[in-house]
Design brief:
Blueprint: E1 6-12, H1 16-24, H2 26-32, E2 34-37, E3 46-51, E4 57-66, E5 70-75, E6 80-87, E7 93-100, H3 107-131, H4 137-148
Antiparallel strand pairs: 1-7, 2-3, 3-4, 4-5, 5-6, 6-7
Length: 150
């Protein structure tokens, strides 16, 4: 049996450069995914990310970067996420996110939750890059999660 993993992909009407910058530059990350990012991503660098869910944060290590094409991050639990951007057609790029490294008895459940989370993230990014405005998808999901923690 294949180990659990999370995977999402979508087409975005934006340049590969714009999509890549969205995941590497704090000012853009804060428009669609994070509450705070302490630094721009660079190869080998460890960066603390604070998510929109109160109390949720993690450190990511940049394992690999290929300008305007791919980014590989390692999370503090050892899981690894690869973001791949490929030109598609008619002004579209395909964004694919795959995360591996889920372990433990609940690995499949965590992989499913992670897939759901990345679905919100890519949807929010698509709206932001195609319209110039965030839709509030990730922020609203964070509110739901926060309400369940009470």
């Amino acid at each position: 049996m294949k180990p659990p993993y999370a995977q999402v992909e979508t087409l975005i009407r934006a340049t590969a450069r714009d999509i890549y910058r969205a995941f590497t530059e704090p000012a853009i990350l804060k428009q669609f995914w994070l509450a705070e990012s302490e630094a721009t991503l660079e190869p080998g660098k460890k960066v603390r990310w604070t998510f929109m869910v109160p109390g949720a944060s993690d450190e990511v290590i940049v394992r690999r970067m290929e300008q305007d094409h791919s980014l590989v991050l390692q999370w503090s639990d050892g899981a690894q996420t690869e973001f791949t951007i490929d030109s598609f057609q008619d002004g579209y790029c395909k964004l694919k996110i795959v995360q591996n490294g889920f372990v433990g008895d609940d690995a499949w459940d965590v992989a499913i939750e992670t897939t759901q989370g990345f679905t919100y993230v890519v949807s929010e990014l698509k709206v932001l890059l195609e319209t110039g405005r965030p839709a509030g998808i990730v922020r609203d999901k964070a509110k739901l999660i926060a309400a369940q923690m009470i």
